[in-house]
Amino acid sequence: MLDIRFIRENKDRVKEGVIKKGEVPSKVDEVVHADERRRKLVQQGEDLKSRKNAVSAQVAKMKANKEDASAIIAEMKVVAEKIKVIDRELREVEETLRSLLLQIPNLPHPSVPVGKGPDENQIISTWGEPFLIDFSPKPHWELAEKLNIVDFTRGTKITGTGYPVYVGKGAQLDRALVNFFLDEATANGYTEVFPPLLVNATSATGTGQLPDKEDQMYVVPRDDFYLVPTAEVPVTNFYRDEILAERQLPIKFSACTPCFRREAGSYGKDVRGLNRVHQFNKVELVKFVHPDNSYEELESLCHDAERVLQKLGLQYHLLLMCSGDMGFTQAKKYDLEVWSVGQQKWLEVSSVSNFESYQARRMNIRFRPERGGKPEIVHTLNGSALALPRVIAALLEHYQTPEGKVIIPKILHEYTGFEVIG
RNA sequence: GGAGAGGUGGCCGAGUGGUUGAAGGCGCUAGUCUCGAAAACUAGUAUGCGCGCAAGUGUAUCGAGGGUUCGAAUCCCUCCCUCUCCGCCA
After folding, report:
1. A4-101 is classed in which CATH architecture?
2. For A150-164, what is each residue's pLDDT tens digit?
3. What is the pLDDT of residues A34-43, one digit of tens each?
4. pLDDT value at A294 more than 90
5. Per CA to C1' distance, which residue is closest to B70?
6. Which helix (H) or strand (E) holds A408?
7. Which of A158, A256, A384, A407 is most deeply buried (CB count within 10 A of its CB)?
8. What is the pTM of this model?
9. Strand partners of residue A253
10. Where are the domains of chain A?
11. Do the beta carbons of residue A285 and residue A252 sit within 8 Å?
12. ipTM of the prediction
C-alpha cells in the first residue's frame, strides 16, 4: 500500500497514477476523507487521555496523602466513557482506511509506458536464433506424449485437469532444470531458501495476494492457510515486521517451490499441454534493497533471469509492461517470453517486478539508516528464473528432431545425466 | 490429540493495580583514559501515530484482541505462539 502521508500531500498525482493503472480514482478521495476523520478523532481522544493521565496521577498522590479523591474520580468516570466512545469510532475509521488503502494500487514508475492492455506493452529486446530446421515442428504435448515423459491423462485421473504427471526423463528434466536455475542463482549471489508451501492470511496480504487475488489461491479452510501461488509470498514475508541494518542490503534470496494456482476463468487453447497448469515448479528470485537503487536492482534481476534463457539457447523477448497490464502491486514490470516454435507463439516464463515500498509497507519491513534517523521502508523486487513448465515446453519444441527425439542442450548434461530423450 | 508451564525492550531478566516506557545486567554507539587496544569510568541506546518549520510535545505499545477500574505489564475473558511430558508420526 501507499504511504498515507504521500497520498495526503500528492492527491492529484496519486489519482493520475491510479487512472494509468486502469483503476478507479474515486477511492483516493475516500482515503483522504477517512484520513482526515481519523486524525480528528486521534486528536480528540488524545486530549482526553492526556487529561485522564494527569488526573490519575493526582488521584494516586491524594490517596497516598489519605485525602478524599471521590469528586475527581466521579468526574473522570465521564471522561473515561467519552474516551471509550471515541476509541471505538476511531477503530472503525482506521479499519475503513486500511481497507481503502489496500484498494489503491501501486503507482507506475515514470518510465512505464501508459497503456490499457497487452497490445501496448513494449518489446525491449529479442534474443536468440530462430528454429531453422526444414520440417514442421510439433507442439510439446505431442512430443511429450510420444516420448512418454509427461502423462496428462493420468494426472487428470489422480487429481484433475491441469495436473500433469512428469514421468521418467520428463521428471528428471524438470529436476535438472531446477538444479541448474538454483545453481545459477547461487553463482549470482542469491541465498537459497526453502520456505513453507502454506502461508497464513497475514503473509498472503503482505505480498498483495489478498484481498486482490483471493480467487487464484487454493485455501485450506480448516487451518486457515493458503497454498503458495509463488515463492514470492513466503520468501518476501521472511522479514515481515523487522528492521534490517542498512549494511545488510541488498538481500537476495532464491527459492524453488511448487506453485499452486486455481487459474479460475482460464479456458481454451491457452491451457493446452503445459501452457497453463495448476501446480508447477518455479525458481523465484527475491530482493530486499535500498530505495535509492531499486531500479538498478530491477535491471540486474532481469539480466539474471535472461541469462538462464540464453544459456539454454532458447529464443525469447523482453517486454516492458504498460501501466494497465502490469498488475496491482507493481511499479514497474518486465516479462520474459520464450518462443514456442511448436505453437508459433510466445509463452511467459518470467515476470520481473519492482514493488518499491508497496509490499514492504504492508509487511512493515524497514532498515535503519547508517547515518541515524528513523527506520525507512525497504524496496522489494522479485522475478522468476524461471517457471518450469513453459521452459520445458519451449525446450522440447526447440530441440526436437525430425524423428521426434529431443536433444538436451549441453549445459544441462551434467544435470540430466542423459543427452537425448527418445 | 491429552496434561502442565510460560510469553516483558537487540538479548538475558526484575516487576502482581498508582510518576514503570518499564529496575539490573549484557550487547551496541560516543566520550574520557591510552602510542593504539583491552580494562575501567561517563553518557546515550525502542517503535507507531497526532500536532509542530524545528527543538519539542501529546498519546499508544510488556504475545494479540476484548473487559473491569479514576488508573492495568500487573485482575478477568477469548485467541495465538513457545517449552516440557504423554500419544501419534516422515
Report:
1. Orthogonal Bundle (1.10)
2. 999 999 999 999 999
3. 999 999 999 9
4. yes
5. A73
6. none
7. A384
8. 0.92
9. A191, A286
10. 4-101, 118-421
11. yes
12. 0.86
Which nucleotides of strand B are protein-proximal, with an atom < 7 A from a CB? Answer: 18-19, 47-51, 58-60, 66-71
pLDDT digits (tens, 9 = 90+) for A337-386: 999 999 999 999 999 999 999 999 988 899 988 877 788 999 999 999 99
- Out of 3.30.930.10, 3.30.110.30, 3.50.50.60, 3.40.50.2300, select the CATH number for domain A118-421: 3.30.930.10
What is the nearest nucleotide to A223, using C1' and CA?
B80
Q: Closest Cα partner for A209 from A193, A230, A235?
A: A230
In whole angstroms, how large is the CA radius of gyration of chain A? 27
- Residues within a 7 A CB radius of strand B: A 4-5, 39, 42-43, 46-47, 49-50, 52-57, 59-60, 63, 73, 76-77, 79-80, 84, 91, 243, 366, 368, 374-375
Residue owning grid cell 523465484: A284
CA–C1' A197–B89 (A): 20
CB A308 within 8 A of CB A383: no
> Which triple of cell numbers denotes residue A9?
500531500
